[in-house]
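Appendix B, Record 12. Input sequence as logged:
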Amino acid sequence: MSIDRDAAPENTPARPRRRRAATRVAAAAAGGLLLDAASAPVGWWPAAVLGVAVATLAVRGCRWRAAYGLGLVTAAAYLVPLLAWVRVIGDDAWLALAATQVPLVAIAAPASAVAQRFRRWPATAAGCGCAWVLSEAIRGREPFGGFPWGRLAFSQASSPLRDAVVVAGVPAVTFLVAVVGGLLACGAVAVARAWGRRGEAGPRTALAGAVVPFVAAAIVVGGVPLLPTPGPSGRDVTVAAVQGNVPRLGLDAFSQREAVLRNHVRETQQLAAAIAAGRRPQPDIVVWPENASDLDPFANPEAGTELSAAAATIGRDILVGAVVTGPRPGTLRNQGLLWGPDGYRGQSYTKQHLVPFGEYLPFRPLLTRLVGRFRTYLPDDFVPGTTSRSIDMGPVRVADVICYEVAYDGVVRDSVRQGGQVIVVQTNNATYGRTMSEQQLQMGRLRAIEHGMPVIVVATSGISAIIGPDGTVHQQTQVFTAASLVATVRAAAPGHRTLADRVGAWPELVAVVMGAALTLLPAGRRFARLAGRAQRRTAR
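Logged structural output:
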């Protein structure tokens, strides 16, 4: 592919150069704010496309360092408001989390700048798509196992672009969002050039050519819903999600562990009474949220008795979110336990992706000296699980994931591959409130489409929801209320796999390699020039 050398920055007087720099910074910040507006609580999905377009234009013609600096501005304007729900822990925790993510999101900027040097707009748009997939792939894995919250795709649960997830997973949706944004950027540049030549011969021809990228963007957005998205062919199952609520809000919401467990037992008993009275149908499976029992039912006989009584009352085994004692002193496990009237059924899932600074403390000896509240709120470390599991619950197998694991492609995909027919997301958002819950709900909707099966999001204090295989929310609760949901959904057939399940991470890998090549292209060209000079000197 040829490179457009005209896109390189020009020497300009100081004042116009400062004015141009200020314009770029403002555009970069506007792009980040638009990206945030695409996510909950605003949730306007076209803002993600526009945000990518504006951020792409901001770095047009920039060299690597300048583009990365502008990328930092975009990423900060995007992530700082997006992650504001972390403020309940402390402003320092909120800003520290954003600070770990901003440099990784900013990686998309220099790659997008390089992509705009291609003379052909399809190559530029594809390069923008690869750039964003690259940045998301990195921050979904590092540091501390990654934090893939706020991926472009997760804002697209109501977008026409969402259906690409069934073909190549979440990275495909991110890719298309960035591609459409890149096309809009290319179209804006082409229109500006055509307008600048309006006094020359053939302005209509130039303007007609300028709108081609916009037409291509419309074709992409309109064409994705035409992709085949086969639904599950399994049986209907009636599912129940029990949201018991918590006694208090904030970080101390789970200090009254007995009260939280009793809340869930009480709500289950009320659901059982409604079933007995004929007001609610008998469910096939019953699920409780993460942290529904912070009392270890194996070590605390009273907690185990409460769980068995609840299962006997509802007449079904219950998938219970519980905190259990870990393998070593001072350790815990975050698990989903299948519990019946006679006790533990021998099936469980242990959360694999733990929350750093929430479920375990990196560099514990140092940080507990520097930040005293860690000793109070995080006295013990959780131990991660090592494998994904699906759990037999009556007529179906349940793919269980816990809390923000729903953001990790591999965790959900592996659980489905273990035979899951219904996905259950057990979560506890009591500390963080409504915004985090809304963002997580959007992820659940996308996962339902990706894997072609229902998703049950069951939260301790909301938002709980029952989502159909097409991403439709059939029922949902309000936050900080006690409630139960019961609905009949079509489960996936045994062995059901979408194309995204089959191809796995390969599409992401291809995009990452191309995005990395774009990012490193300037360094490669510089190295080639230096090597050529050295060779010429040696020849002399």
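The chain has 18 helices and 13 strands.
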